[in-house]
Each structure stands twice: as structure tokens, then as C-alpha cells.
């Protein structure tokens, strides 16, 4: 694509889903698909060549979900243009910058039902076999959506590529967790693959490494849910311990020791956990958070106000914790997890300064 000058910005196209000249024309072909016409909610990858599909979805007033890059802060965000958005604003919303500026996170407990999935590809065959960058994110995103109940085997998958990217792919390269496609759109063709190979039926935990668990917080949340449901969640390289699970030296304050409020305001690197059940103990919350690998620098407990604050060193760590706690539940309650608003330390009054008495009841955290 580079040598024949078929590639488009950003260049070079190596190590990415390649953008190409004519990508907007290829995207327009999705209007010819009946599945797009009846779609109400669709998931479109954030790749540059798919920008035209994202714009069409917004112009058609469909619900648009876009995965977060490398799944660092959750699974996907809902793009929400401002009221009365002009065509120019919608174009901005469809870009990678717009995805960052005009989106809200979608939690695991959100009632998401995706009618259509649009993915980028490096290469694809007319049989519907697909190759991505080789990192497996599109396959994993789909498997995670299956685990959430957002898609099923009948949910159509579309890819947008240049004609030169449609090639023969040996079936031997495919594995059970690889995502196949039902439609291929190029600047000159609309290909219905008729692919009958089953799509991923869920997360193949035996293919997931401990390194991936460290990098993708929402994966930890889903694994915890499936473990609670009695499923086999054994990882590829054996047992996994949540980050920070090792015991701290006796001379240091434990991250779990509730600390007195500091003077000043709560920084944006703090996370508020609200709507806690009336009878929940701080020890139960700590055990549930540890199981998800969520270990703050310190914790402020406000049981009477049914809330707690998790304090982190920087805003990025706080955002990662929020992503990991999407859909977090204690008992029958889904707790509220938000970035703490700026507030005076007096608002944090009542935070416990000593470790509560041991609570030997089992943790009630569940999926």
C-alpha cells in the first residue's frame, strides 16, 4: 500500500490498521446493507479508515459505541454529540479526538445490545477470515461483548478495507478465538462472505496472559464475574495475583488503612464509591477490591454516609480504577463509582482513622 501510494494519513501504515485512499467511499457502501438500515446500536472501532462509518452512524442518529484504545480505561464509550450539533461538530465527533471529547463510559451493567459490529483489518479473505494487527484486541473486544450479553452468534460483523487487502488467507492461520466477518466493504465492492465459521463464544481465559490482566482492568472485572459464576478462568500462564496484593512491610502504612482526611480538597486522583449497602463493612469492601486488583494508595471510609474514597497518586491511576470497577457490586447493590468531585476536606469528615474490628463474614462482592 505504501509502495503503490494507496495509503493515506497516518503514514507509514505499518503496525496499525492501515488507512487508505478511498476509505470514505468504502464506508458509504454500508448504507447499501439492510443490516445497517435496521441497526439501532453499533460498535465501530476507533481506526482512521472507519471514520466514515462513525460519521454515518451519528448522522443517522444511531447509538454509537467505540472501544477505548487498547482497552486501558474500559471496554467502550458511547459517543454523545452536543444538542443541536452541526455537521461540522458531528464530523469532529467521528474523529479520534471527538471520541475523546464527546464520549461517556459504558459500564458492564449497562443494557447494551449491539446490532452491528464494524472492525478494521489488515487483510481479509472473501471467505470472511480476517487478520488484524496481531495483538488480538478486536477478537478480545468481541469475546468480552459476548460475556456481557451485548452480542451473539447472529450479530453481523463488517470490515472496511482497500481492494488490495482482500486476499487468500490459509485456514490454518485461524484459531477458535479469531473473529470472522460477514461483510467486506471496499471502494468498489460489497462482499457478502457467507462465513459459517463460529465466532468467539466468550473469553478464552486459557489464551489470556497475566500481562494482559495487568494491562486491561475491565478484563479483571469480567474474570471476577465469571469466576463467581463457577466458570473455569484459569489463565494461560497460571495463577494471577492482583497488583499490590503482596503484603506491605510492617513499618509502612497499608494502602487499606483508612487515613484521616487531609487539609485542602479531594484531588481529581480520588475515586468515590457510593451507594454502599447499609450493613457493609470496610473489610468486605477491601476484600472485594483486592479480588479485582484495585489497590489505592489509601482509603477513606465513610460507612454512615454509605461511601468510601480511594486515593491514588495521579489521575491516570484513578481512571484505571474506575474502568476496573464498572458494574461493581456489593451484595445486591450496584455501587456508584465516579471520579471524586473537588470538595473541601470537611466534606470528608467522619472518615475512620483506625482499622475496624475483623469481620469474619465472607465477602459479598459478586458479579
Structure description:
The chain is an alpha+beta fold and 367 residues long. It is built from ten helices and 17 strands. The protein has helices at residues 23-28, 34-37, 51-59, 87-93, 96-101, 137-148, 210-215, 217-228, 282-291, 315-324; strands at residues 41-44, 63-67, 76-79, 103-105, 116-119, 123-124, 130-131, 157-160, 183-185, 190-192, 270-274, 298-302, 307-311, 329-330, 333-334, 336-339, 365-366. Strand 14 (329-330) and strand 15 (333-334) form a beta hairpin. Helix 3 crosses helix 4 and helix 8 (217-228) runs parallel beside helix 10 (315-324). The radius of gyration is 23 Å and the shape is globular. The N and C termini lie far apart (46 Å). Mean pLDDT is 81; it is low at 246-267, 343-350 and 352-367. Residues 262-272 have a biased composition (Low complexity). Residues 357-367 have a biased composition (Basic and acidic residues). Keywords: RNA-binding. This is Methenyltetrahydrofolate synthase domain-containing protein.
Amino acid at each position: 500500500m505504501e509502495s503503490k501510494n494507496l495509503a493515506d494519513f497516518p503514514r507509514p501504515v505499518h503496525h496499525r490498521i492501515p488507512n487508505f485512499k478511498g476509505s470514505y467511499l468504502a464506508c458509504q457502501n454500508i448504507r447499501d446493507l439492510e443490516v445497517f438500515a435496521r441497526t439501532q446500536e453499533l460498535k465501530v472501532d476507533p481506526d482512521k479508515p472507519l471514520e466514515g462509518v462513525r460519521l454515518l452512524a451519528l448522522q443517522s442518529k444511531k447509538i454509537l459505541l467505540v472501544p477505548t484504545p487498547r482497552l486501558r480505561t474500559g471496554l467502550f464509550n458511547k459517543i454523545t454529540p452536543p444538542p443541536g450539533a452541526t455537521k461540522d461538530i458531528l464530523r469532529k465527533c467521528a474523529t479520534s479526538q471527538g471520541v475523546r471529547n464527546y464520549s461517556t463510559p459504558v459500564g458492564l451493567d449497562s443494557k447494551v445490545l449491539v446490532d452491528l459490529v464494524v472492525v478494521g483489518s489488515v487483510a481479509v479473505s472473501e471467505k470472511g477470515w480476517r487478520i488484524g494487527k496481531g495483538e488480538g484486541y478486536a477478537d478480545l473486544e468481541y469475546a468480552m461483548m459476548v460475556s456481557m450479553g451485548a452480542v451473539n452468534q447472529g450479530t453481523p460483523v463488517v470490515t472496511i478495507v482497500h481492494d488490495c487487502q482482500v486476499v487468500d488467507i490459509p485456514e490454518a492461520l485461524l484459531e477458535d478465538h479469531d473473529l470472522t466477518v460477514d461483510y467486506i466493504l471496499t471502494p468498489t465492492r460489497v462482499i457478502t462472505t457467507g462465513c459459517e465459521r463460529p465466532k468467539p463464544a466468550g473469553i478464552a481465559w486459557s489464551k489470556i496472559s497475566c500481562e494482559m490482566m495487568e494491562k486491561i482492568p475491565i478484563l479483571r472485572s469480567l474474570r471476577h464475574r465469571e469466576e463467581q459464576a463457577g466458570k473455569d478462568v484459569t489463565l494461560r500462564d497460571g495463577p494471577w495475583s492482583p497488583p499490590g496484593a503482596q503484603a506491605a512491610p510492617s513499618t509502612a502504612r497499608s494502602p487499606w488503612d483508612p487515613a484521616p482526611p487531609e487539609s485542602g480538597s479531594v484531588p481529581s486522583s480520588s475515586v468515590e464509591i457510593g451507594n454502599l449497602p447499609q450493613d457493609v463493612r470496610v473489610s468486605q469492601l477491601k476484600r472485594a477490591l483486592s479480588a479485582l486488583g484495585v489497590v489505592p494508595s489509601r482509603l477513606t471510609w465513610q460507612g454512615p454516609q454509605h461511601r468510601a474514597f480511594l486515593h491514588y497518586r495521579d489521575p491516570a491511576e484513578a481512571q484505571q480504577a474506575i474502568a476496573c470497577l464498572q458494574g461493581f457490586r456489593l451484595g445486591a447493590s450496584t455501587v456508584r463509582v465516579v471520579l471524586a468531585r473537588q470538595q473541601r476536606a470537611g466534606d470528608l469528615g467522619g472518615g475512620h482513622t483506625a482499622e475496624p474490628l475483623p469481620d469474619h463474614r465472607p465477602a459479598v462482592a459478586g458479579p
